[in-house]
Amino acid sequence: MKLDGCNALVTGASAGIGREFARQLAGRAETIVLVARRRQHLDELRDELTKRDPNLTVHVRVVDLADKLQIYALVEWLEREKITIDLLINNAGLGDLGPFSTSDPDRLEQIILVNMFAPTLLTRRLLPPMIAKKRGAILNVSSSAGFLPIAEFSVYAASKAYLTSFSEGLRSELRGTGVGVCALCPGPVHTEFDQVAQRSDSPKRGSPDFVHVSAEAVARAGLSAIEHDRALVIPGCFMKLGMFFVRITPMPLLRLASRLSAK
């Protein structure tokens, strides 16, 4: 799918990778719908994008993706405004770093709703018009964490495993329809995600700088993958190599590595 002239919807657009998606679509997209919870950040981004490209139409929608009714309201607004989305970027995500046994049940529910339910529901509602027009793309921002078990990050990793598997299955279903699906699986990225996921009572964990990829590079890789109809992309040479070995490593060894990392 060529991105020029597309109507894109980006969730989690107020910061990090989502903001970079919007920035890189400016000058190419016809319309961008920015979705997140923080209006001030969205308004600032809208002003930045329209200043850069006065012909770009930018809509700001404050939506909590953990609330099913707000997702339905978003879709109904799109229908009323006659905005047909042909590029859906399911980027929003939440994490929780710490032992599962001491996790906040409300936080776990939010992770499941935002990371799994919201992209599934949005895809279900926005996909049929794409199929009807034989033009569209869905970019699901998953994670390399979905390829392996991660102690004290188990719910997040499992939610991303779901999103990657969902993307692969949906891609097979849509073959020949003109609609592409891609799972974007970055490793560590310097965004506010880690600060939000970190519990105040848990020791800080981090990855060495050489495995990190910038939010700009991740967004660029995702959009390029859509244009080249790729099923899955892992940004960064080190992460590509690392995840190749992870995916061919027997599960008993991955379990051992997960146990050691928890210690």
Description:
The protein has 263 residues and is an alpha/beta fold. The protein has nine helices and seven strands. The chain has a seven-stranded parallel β-sheet with strand order 3-2-1-4-5-6-7, sandwiched between helices. Helix 1 (16-25) packs across helix 7 (215-227) and helix 4 (105-133) packs parallel to helix 5 (154-173). The chain is globular, with a radius of gyration of 18 Å. The mean pLDDT is 91.
Unreliable residue runs: none
Gross morphology is globular
Q: State the end-to-end distance.
A: 45 Å
Q: Count the strands?
A: 7
Into which percent range does the helicity of residues fall? 40-55%
Largest sheet: 7 strands, parallel
Mean pLDDT: 91
Indicate the proportion of strand residues: 5-15%
Note the total helix count: 9
Oligomer type: single chain
**What's the arrangement of strands in the largest beta sheet?**
3-2-1-4-5-6-7
User: Could you say which structural class the secondary elements and strand pairing correspond to?
Assistant: alpha/beta
Strands, helices and their partners?
Blueprint: E1 7-11, H1 16-25, E2 31-36, H2 39-52, E3 57-62, H3 68-80, E4 87-90, H4 105-133, E5 136-141, H5 154-173, E6 179-184, H6 193-197, H7 215-227, E7 232-233, H8 237-248, H9 251-262
Parallel strand pairs: 1-2, 1-4, 2-3, 4-5, 5-6, 6-7
Helix pairs in contact: 1-7, 4-5
